Amino acid sequence: MRKLRAGLSLATAGFLSLMISGVVVPSAQADPGAEAGAERYLDSVRHDPARLRSFMLDLPKGGDLHSHLSGAASTELLISLAVRDGLCIHTTTFVAAAGPCGAGQRPAADTSSDPAFRRAVLMAWSMEGFQPGQGESGHDHFFATFGKFGAVTGAHRLDMLADVLDRAGRQNEQYLETMLTRQGGPLFDLSQHITFTDDFAAMRAQVLAGGTMAGITAAATTEMDTDATRLRSLLGCATPAASPGCGVTPRYIQQVNRNNPPNVVFTYMVSAFELAAADHRTVAVNLVSPEEGEVSLRDYRLHMRMLDYLRGVYRTGHITLHAGELVPGLVKPEELTYHIREAVLTGRAERIGHGADVLGEDDWPQLLRTMADRHVMVEINLSSNEQILGLSGRDHPFPSYRAFRVPVTLSTDDEGVSRIDLTHEYQRAATGYRLRYRDLKTLARTSLDHAFLDGASLWRSPDTFVPATPCARDRLGAPHPGPACRTFLAGSPKASVQWQQEAEFTAFEHRYR
Q1: What is the arithmetic mean of pLDDT over 319-328?
Q2: What is the dihedral of CA 17, 382, 1, 452, to 10 degrees?
Q3: Has residue 1 been placed in a domain?
Q4: What pTM, to 2 d.p., does this model score?
Q5: Residue 20 pLDDT grade (very low, low, confident, very high; cuts 50, 70, 90)
Q6: What positions belong to coiled-coil segments (predicted)?
């Protein structure tokens, strides 16, 4: 965790009111003068992209809660790893594969000496320079990238994670939740011995029988221990040249490919909950792979029932779900009417990723009211929604979520493939939706309020930003809180990271007074 900056000018006591789309949200213990100064500065640079980016880069953005590790690492890193591994790249499909190179392939090393070849690989492995309408949709190009560089990502989890953490730290992020699959091979092997049945209790008994799942869980925990040690080394955390990524707290979401057969999906779901019960560093389960896939559509409600059952069995582990990453034309109209509702009501999702088609849901106003009442947060991915779905501006439901008081934050999805970062998403939101500084601050606070980090929140209740009772008399982010608050923070990693963010907000606002 970053050290709090010395000599901070601290926020005064009291509360402000924050207007968001006509909704009053209290701003906890904020300094009116400091916030007003940051607001004025934002207005002064709103049409100056370079200075606006600097402002957004400096903003304490909290956490990136929706990040696929396989798509988050920079394309430049993937190319360098392909060179290091001696891989070959097909000159037409741009699929990387182990050597020796055959007909139609070139050594990845050629990207170091041939700028045109490097550029071609970069464009094939990301959305760099992509122009729709050239025989391939943004949706198809985006998802095709993973198969092209898959030979790289499968072998370099830690290099990729170090890259993502370093970038997060350089952007003043405090926290990262990344989606990956631990022990995917052994889990798949186990799933082949599981017979699907609608009796989920019986199927879970199959998964847990014989101790194989327990062994997989233990191996995954050991893997996380090893990862933590190696990450510190890769990031130079014990050296004077430590990466900013050393100050970012990582947590992991066990992902499940929703386009697998139901016995496989269920096995991986059980693994996610078992791992979350065994190790606090795995915090949740999520379903990944295109939502419009044949199996995903066929089994969508089945998957939600599986999660409903498992949520009732396990006390630990959270649920965040890709839902509504759809638009008309991608699926038949009926499929646009229920995915988010099913994820919230049946799948018991605490957070929704994308939620792009919410305005096509049956009785969508009531759904939004339900989400607001239940504090179901939406992870908004502006750039990937435009690249994959062609959805942006006023066509995007981001303003509708805010108008209905549904908690939202910004996230990156696959920042390496998209060629963006979280700073870019904040800048995009500020310019595209005329967000004020207080709106940005709320988005950043919301990310940590809804993070699946262990421990109680700094805030008394979700989305209020009123400090919990032990810290109610303390200045937010103070370097020396009172005894009750200090004890509370020491017992909650989540509240501790939130306190850190508040200290950084104070410093940030005083820099821009």
Answers
A1: 98
A2: 80
A3: no
A4: 0.92
A5: very low
A6: none
In a domain, 194, yes or no: yes
H or E element, residue 493: helix 493-511
Give residues with Cβ within 8 angstroms of 155, minimum separation 6. 81, 85
The confidence band for 30, taking pLDDT boundaries of 50, 70 and 90, is low
> Are 305 and 440 within one domain?
yes
Domain boundary among 153, 176, 211: 153
Residues 233 and 165: their CA atoms lie apart, in Å, by 13
Query: Is 384 a member of any domain?
Result: yes
3-state SS of 81-105 is HHHHCCCEEECCCCCEECCCCCCCE
Domain identity same for 110 and 203? no
398's tokens: 């981001």
Confidence of residue 15 (pLDDT cuts 50, 70, 90): very low
Read off the pLDDT band of 33 (50, 70, 90): confident
pLDDT in tens, 183-192: 999 999 999 9
- Tokens representing 505 are 């907000």
Strand-pair category, 88-90 with 105-107: antiparallel
User: Are 498 and 67 spatial neighbours (Cβ–Cβ below 8 Å)?
Assistant: no
Q: Are 148 and 109 in contact (CB under 8 A)?
A: no
Same-domain status, 129 and 229: no
Q: Could you tell me if 81 and 156 are in contact, meaning their C-beta atoms sit under 8 angstroms apart?
A: yes
Domain-ending residue, one of 413, 431, 449: 449
Distinct helix (H) and strand (E) counts, the chain: 23, 13
416, 73 in Cβ contact below 8 A?
yes
Cβ partners under 8 Å of residue 452, min gap 6: 177, 251, 253, 283, 284, 318, 320, 350
Same domain, 115 and 189: no
Residues 6+ apart with CB under 8 A from 235: 162, 165, 166, 242, 243, 245, 246
32 found inside a domain? yes
CA separation for the pair 296, 288 (Å, rounded): 10
**Domain, as residue range, for 348:** 157-449
Give 138-178 as a 3 state SS string.
HHHHHHHHHHHCHHHHCCCHHHHHHHHHHHHHHCCEEEEEE
Q: Binning pLDDT at 50, 70 and 90, where does residue 29 land? A: low
The count of domains in the chain is: 3
Query: What is the separation of C-alpha 309 from the centre of its chain, rounded to a whole number of angstroms?
Result: 25
**Pair 226, 101 in one domain:** no
Same domain, 318 and 420: yes
- What's the rounded Cα separation, in Å, for the pair 296 and 136? 23
User: Is the distance from CB of 71 to CB of 416 less than 8 angstroms?
Assistant: yes
Instruction: Tell me: do 244 and 171 sit in the same domain.
Output: yes
